[in-house]
Amino acid sequence: MPTPHIAAEQGDIAPAVLLPGDPRRAERIAAQLMPDARLVSEVRGNGVYTGEVDGRPLTVMASGMGMPSLGIYANELFSHYDVQRIVRVGTAGGLSPAVGVGDVVVALGAHTDSAMNERRIPGIRFSAVASYPLVAAAVAADGDAPGLHVAPVVSRDHFYGNPPEQIRALADYGTLAVEMEAAGLYAIAAEYGREALAVLTISDHLLDPSGDFSPEEREQNFQRSLRMGLAAAHA
């Protein structure tokens, strides 16, 4: 039966879900990958599209921005619709000299300043990590192309106000990018015993904003991470 935030019926949502942040991007991805996709829900203007890619079922929908929004959808997808894997395909900000605008980061793990994961296991600081089979599938789909990184990211509650000293410390510890959802997604997948991954295009850089993508460039340079995300979703 439908949930408070997804009006789809049982069977309307595929076992694999691609989850960008923006509802308009979700609509464009669905149209590109599945021209005959069905619109199975549009609660709060968030379209949910289900179809097939190369004969395999796929659902595309948006998470919204931040872990609270993503957490609502991920919980309902895993618990009510028996989704087996969710792949976030989105953008992130570079925070290390090791990564450049236009690069793709496969998020092996996700640090966070959010309290959302602290309460999961009393006395333990939960480590939010990706599902390795999805990591391997995403990387294999890209071959040996330059500009691909498999590394930790940081998921923050606040879009603005990244403390410079914190950014430097994270970069020193091998963290390459900042975004707002992966840590929540990985934790929820672990809670349900399911799989999750975030494949992120670096669209801007905290150390040098001169080369940041325009809105048009964000769309044009999104195809690489989409191809990798699709490979992970159907691994």
From TrEMBL:
- Residues in Nucleoside phosphorylase domain copies: 16-225
The EC number(s) this enzyme carries: 2.4.2.3
Q: The organism sits in which domain of life?
A: Bacteria
Q: Which InterPro entries match?
A: Nucleoside_phosphorylase_d (IPR000845), Nucleoside_phosphorylase_sf (IPR035994)
Q: What is catalysed by this protein?
A: uridine + phosphate = alpha-D-ribose 1-phosphate + uracil
Q: What class of enzyme is it?
A: transferase
- Pfam families for the chain: PNP_UDP_1
Protein name (Swiss-Prot/TrEMBL): Uridine phosphorylase
Give the originating organism.
Georgenia halophila
Q: Which gene encodes it?
A: deoD
